[in-house]
Structures are given as C-alpha cells and as structure tokens.
Amino acid sequence: METESTHIGSIGVDTRKLGMWVFLASEIMFFSGLIGSYIVLRFANLEVWPVPSTVLNIPLTAVNTFILICSSAALVLGLSSIQRGYKEGLQVGLLLTILLGTLFLSIQVKEYRELIHDGFTISSSIFGSCFFTLTGFHGAHVFAGVVWLIVVFALSFGPRFSRDQYCGVEMAGLYWHFVDLVWIILFTILYLI
Amino acid sequence: MSDVEAVRKRPNYAGVFWSLFILTILEIIAANTPFAKVLVVVTLVILALMKAGLVALYYMHLKFEKYVFYVIVFFPLLLAVILTVLVLADKAIA
Predict the structure, then answer these.
(1) Residues of the domain holding B29
(2) Under a CB-based contact definition with an 8 Å cutoff, are residues A97 and A149 in contact?
(3) Secondary structure element (H or E) that encloses residue B74, with its range
(4) Across chain B, how many H-helices and E-strands are there?
(5) Which whole number is the average pLDDT over B6-30?
(6) Do residues A88 and A153 touch, judged by C-beta distance below 8 A?
(7) Considering only CB atoms, which chain B residues are within 8 Å of A184?
(8) Cα-based distances in Å from B15 to A82, A83, B55
(9) What is the average per-residue pLDDT within B60-71?
(10) Which of 165-184 (A) contact B at CB < 8 A?
C-alpha cells in the first residue's frame, strides 16, 4: 500500500512536496515581479499617486483579509483532522475554506463594481493599472484555489485520504496558504501604505 | 515518532490565528496614526512580514521542513529584491 513515506527522494524529502515548493517558488517570482514593478512605478510617480484610503474601501478589505485568514485556519484544522484519521473533520474544514474563499471573491467583485462605478478603472490612472493588475492576478489565484479545494473536497468522500495518505490535502493547503500570504503583503502595500 | 514529527503534530494553530487577527488590527490602527510617514510605513512593513512569517512557518509548516525548502523559498525572493533595488537605483541615477 502506498503511504506518505513511499515518495521520499534521495535527499530525504517528499518529492511531491519538493515539486510543490518549486512551483510556489515560481509563484513567488511572479508576484515579486509584480510587486517590484508596483514599488518602482510608485516611486517614479510620487507626486500624482493618491492616498489609497481616499480611493479604496479599507474597512471592507480589512474584513476580506480577516475572511482569508479564517479560511487558512479552517483548512489547517482540516489537515490536522485527517492526520489524526478524522475524515469528517477534514470535510468540514474543506467546506468552510471553500465557502470563505468564495465569500472573499464575492466581496472583491463587489469592491470592483463600486470602484468602477466611481470612475476608478484599470485605465484611469497608473495606480488603477497597478491595483487591478495585482488584485486581479491574486483573485485569479484564489479562484484556482477554490476550484482545487472543491476537487479535494469531492475526493474526500472516497478512499483517497486517510491517516496515512493526506498529501493531496497538504498540497492544496500549501497553495491556499501561499495565496493568503500574498494577500497579506498586497493588503499592506496597496491599501495601507 | 521523531521529536520533529511530534512537534509537527501539534502546532498551535489557534495561537497563530489569533496572532494574525491581532496583527491585522494593529496594521489598521498603525495606518491611521498621525506619526511620520516613514515611521508608519516601516511599522506596516514589519507587521506584514510578521504575518507572512507566521503563515509560512506554521500554516505552511516551513518551520518543520528541511533546509532545502528554505533555499527554494528565499532564493527567488532574493532575486526579486535585487531586481527592484537595481531598477530603483537606475531610476535614481537617471
């Protein structure tokens, strides 16, 4: 029977986890490139850059940030449950994470609608271009994460996950927490600074 | 079960969650304080890095992983910082 120790490579780490972290490294470079561009553009246009709180809805986004933090906590408790052989705990954790992720996206769509209605669009200013590019790519990642978690949730009703086999949950979790981590940085640099 | 595995089974997830919650509130308070802009920005960056560190170390279990994972994470970050600093320096010189 295949267990978690079956995939340990020559350097003593799980090859699936190693592959996932290499993928996340490419994602780090992707978002670092975008954030680096944002910093450079902001420094180059300091005189025309608006104070974010005069354009963006900070309280709404703070709530959204809290929702994403809650989703990460729910997912990590789900993983902890399956590591103890408690499959129902995993399913509850996954379902909560999916619902909170969907709520995050819904609030982001509401925010976009309000901003566009107020004339703040991707082409209205350099800040608008940066804002919609960064949050848009992040939102796309959240959407991909929700889809991935729905697949994992569906698979959790079969024999795929158990106390000895939970790599699929762990990989989806790594991706989801990474998306949460990126939002923590984006919330600070786009909305607060 | 090794010591590392034993610790890994019981990270304090609730403690991390409440720490993230409190740090987020502190961020919003810090962003609205009337102190010098530089001081506020430095405080916000430190708070954000603390939150990101908590997520990476405990939720992503980086704290309990081998050294190779740290290399994988920090190498691209280092490249990104070098790129940003060089572009800013180029702009300053021009």
Answers:
(1) 3-93
(2) yes
(3) helix B67-93
(4) 4, 0
(5) 84
(6) no
(7) 48, 51-52, 55
(8) 20, 19, 12
(9) 88
(10) 173-174, 177-178, 180-181, 184
Does B9 score more than 60 pLDDT? no
Are A145 and A100 in contact by the 8 Å Cβ rule? The answer is no
Provide the pLDDT for residue B89. Answer: 82
Measure the CA–CA gap between B54 and B22, rounded to whole angstroms.
Answer: 12
Q: What is the mean pLDDT of residues A92-117?
A: 97
Q: What is the pLDDT of residue B52?
A: 93
Identity of the residue numbered B94: A
Whole-model pTM above 0.80? yes
pLDDT exceeds 80 at position B91: no
DSSP secondary structure letter of residue A50 = P
Residue B65 pLDDT: 85
Residue A139 CB neighbour total at 10 angstroms: 18
In whole angstroms, give the CA distance from residue A128 to residue B54.
30
Number of domains in chain B: 1
Tell me the chain A residues in contact with residue B20 when contact means C-beta distances shorter than 8 Å: 69
| Minimal C-alpha gap between A63 and chain B (Å) | 10
Instruction: Find the CB nearest B31 among A24, A33, A192.
Output: A192
Inter-chain CB proximity A29 and B76 less than 8 Å: yes
Mutate to test the interface with B, among A76, A175, A179, A180 (most CBs of B within 10 A): A76
- Chain A positions in Cβ-Cβ contact with residue B87 (cut-off 8 Å): 36, 40
